[in-house]
Design brief:
single chain; eight-stranded parallel beta barrel; binds 1,3-dihydroxyacetonephosphate; alpha/beta
Length: 249
């Protein structure tokens, strides 16, 4: 389970949301929970989460270790603060023009930094209408793992159809199942069936307390990457509990 806060919360709001999430979710069994606050609040969140079962992730990082990259934060710098790095989110691809090649470099850098990449892939509405969903997922996934000889067990993949993100219009269960099963099939073709069975595949896009239980029961869906609803502690906790109860997480 991932909670991607995106560019939301003041420092005070972030501290209080972490506190509420700890009260709701610390110690919950059957699901691994990662929260992804904005970069400047990561150190605070790290300290507040110390000793708990909640894990911390960064929403983005730069692949170079250090150097003249004004405004950037490297995966290497984040080691020791976070456990996970979100790689290739569609908002990074669309708003910040990040290429498949940039995604591949960050995925490798994240692994080299000792962190766990959460790779996001997903088609736009136009690509879906043109029946290109499978081809787009395959291209994004294969490009991101291009440099890897084997798929490290730390790599998880989130299928996030762009049209379902922030729209209130989640993929239907059959669309979510289809996307996640395509992801697993491509992983199997590239790295073999064991890697595919081990790889955690999440669905993301307008996940809420109302649809989480249904999504969690899908055979190809191991978890969820939640945006808007992760900013409301009670709702995010309800989604995590639905996942835990389904045995998916
Ligand atoms: P929403 O849950 O707000 O649709 O966002 C999903 C997402 O982009 C998570 O990374």
């Amino acid at each position: 389970m991932g909670g991607n806060w995106k560019m939301n919360t003041t420092r005070a709001e972030a501290r209080s949301l972490v506190g509420e999430l700890l009260a709701e979710l610390d110690g919950l069994r059957g699901v691994d929970i990662v929260i992804l606050p904005p970069a400047p609040w990561l150190a605070d969140a790290h300290d507040l989460l110390a000793g708990s079962t909640l894990r911390l992730g960064a929403q983005h990082a730069h692949w170079e270790r250090a150097g003249a990259y004004t405004g950037a934060v490297s995966a290497h710098q984040l080691a020791g603060v976070v456990d996970h790095v979100l790689v290739g989110h569609s908002e990074r691809r669309r708003l910040f023009h990040e290429s498949d090649g940039a995604t591949a470099r960050l995925l490798s850098a994240t692994l080299e930094a000792g962190l766990s990449p959460l790779l996001a892939v997903g088609e736009t509405a136009g690509e879906r209408e043109a029946s290109e969903t499978g081809a787009v997922l395959r291209r994004q996934l294969l490009a991101a793992v291009e440099g890897l000889e084997r798929l490290d067990g730390r790599v998880a993949v989130a299928y996030e159809p762009v049209w379902a993100i922030g729209s209130g219009e989640s993929a239907t269960p059959s669309q979510a199942e289809e996307g996640c099963s395509i992801v697993r099939r491509v992983v199997a073709e590239r790295f073999g069936p064991e890697a595919a069975a081990r790889c955690r595949v999440l669905y993301g896009g307008s996940v809420s307390a109302a649809n989480a239980a249904e999504l969690a029961l899908l055979p190809s869906v191991d978890g969820a990457l939640v945006g808007g609803a992760s900013l409301r502690a009670a709702e995010f906790a309800a989604i995590c509990r639905a996942l835990a109860a389904s045995g998916a997480g």
